[in-house]
DNA sequence: CCGGGAACTGCGAGCTACTCTCAGTTGACC
DNA sequence: GGTCAACTGAGAGTAGCTCGCAGTTCCCGG
């Protein structure tokens, strides 16, 4: 995510921070379930998680990011970059979005992911923050594609292709949520990408 | 936009309100130009426009909407609905987005539109609000399409098609802005929709 | 093993976007 | 022209978010 990943073995400091962040996120979601997102203040989250409000802002930046934050993004970008050597961009992205992401997500805790996504879809402010994040991801994505294929990273075509794919991915998540998480996310994502890839024959 | 449009000849009340909104928007943009979006408070806008802060919130809801608000949205939906009787959804949307919208927009004041779009693209919070608006438009859009074609309004395919088209449209605006408004918006929008319609042959 | 410096934490004060309520006013309609 | 609904402005209050400061904890070179 635009930011330089310090490629040094994580020390005690960083491990403590990550642990604290996961704990805060856990506690926050429990509070949201009880009282609703809007009625839980940062202050209460801080009290319940036994940290100071300042720390929550330092960790997450905004209240929305307490829900949205996770550790997948750099993993996904890396996986995409790797596959780009052997495959064309679309196939690589399909693979990453359908396989890598979903399996990486589910490794941790599928139920937890569903809870987070429910809030992300139902709370407009969180949804907006997610769009914003997606925009940044889209920029990284097309830079990476441009690097590997020599295409113009700022050309209209590449830009449109990228945002369309990201939008399809996000809509797949929305669909997953609205159908009560009935079908596997992988299948829905695959279906959504199919629609984009084959072009629009709707009538 | 989801809301019931009162189809009654606009009285003095409504005309005054619209006039006031346009005036506030004008004044606000001037202040933004001078001091930057973040440094202009609602209070200063209110003082400068000679209304109360309460009124600005009643009119626009949020600070971002002072920039984003305009009168095109219902016009666009109506135009789309009309064309849908004679054409397939994609062509109708192409027509509306490329012709109707751009001409309707330019009728008023192209320079003013550019200034608004500059803030919409450069201020992250405004951009997020714009995504949110686009989401709502997408819902209206696919409901309208479903009504005319009998397709499932909540099916994955229609959903993905719609958000992809909207995303392409927004990216066209972003591209227009980043290239210094060099080429006509119509052409860029047309190009963006082409990319989506023909499907993804990038490699 | 340790000492200096960097990074992180908690605290407090402060700003402003946004909400709600209430009293007063203005336009709509008969 | 009078009544009622809708709109306006004022004021108080909430909470997200920022900033600067003092104290603490970890990192790292010697």
From TrEMBL, chains A, B:
It comes from the Bacteria. The keyword Transcription applies. InterPro entries: Homeodomain-like_sf, HTH-type_TetR-like_transc_reg, HTH_TetR, MftR_C. Residues 18-78 form the HTH tetR-type domain. The keyword Membrane does not apply. It holds the Pfam family TetR_N. One of its GO terms (molecular function) is DNA-binding transcription factor activity. Gene3D superfamilies: Homeodomain-like, Tetracycline Repressor, domain 2. Keywords: DNA-binding, Transcription, Transcription regulation. Residues 41-60 bind DNA. Coiled coil: none annotated. This is TetR family transcriptional regulator. It comes from Jiangella anatolica.
């Amino acid at each position: 995510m635009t930011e330089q990943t310090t490629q040094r073995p994580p020390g005690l400091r960083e491990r403590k921070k990550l642990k604290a962040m996961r704990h805060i996120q856990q506690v926050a979601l429990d509070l949201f379930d009880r009282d609703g997102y809007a009625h839980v203040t940062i202050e209460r989250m801080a009290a319940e998680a036994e940290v100071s409000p300042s720390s929550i802002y330092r960790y997450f930046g905004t209240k929305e990011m307490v829900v949205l934050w996770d550790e997948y993004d750099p993993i996904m970008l890396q996986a995409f970059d790797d596959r780009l050597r052997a495959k064309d961009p679309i196939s690589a992205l399909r693979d990453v979005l359908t396989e890598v992401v979903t399996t990486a997500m589910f490794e941790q805790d599928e139920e937890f992911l569903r809870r987070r996504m429910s809030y992300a879809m139902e709370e407009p402010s969180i949804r907006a923050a997610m769009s914003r994040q997606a925009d940044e991801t889209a920029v990284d994505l097309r830079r990476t594609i441009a690097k590997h294929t020599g295409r113009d990273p700022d050309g209209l075509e590449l830009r449109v292709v990228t945002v369309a794919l990201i939008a399809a991915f996000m809509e797949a998540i929305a669909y997953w949520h609205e159908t009560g998480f009935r079908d596997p996310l992988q299948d829905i994502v695959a279906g959504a990408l199919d629609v984009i890839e084959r072009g629009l024959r709707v009538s």
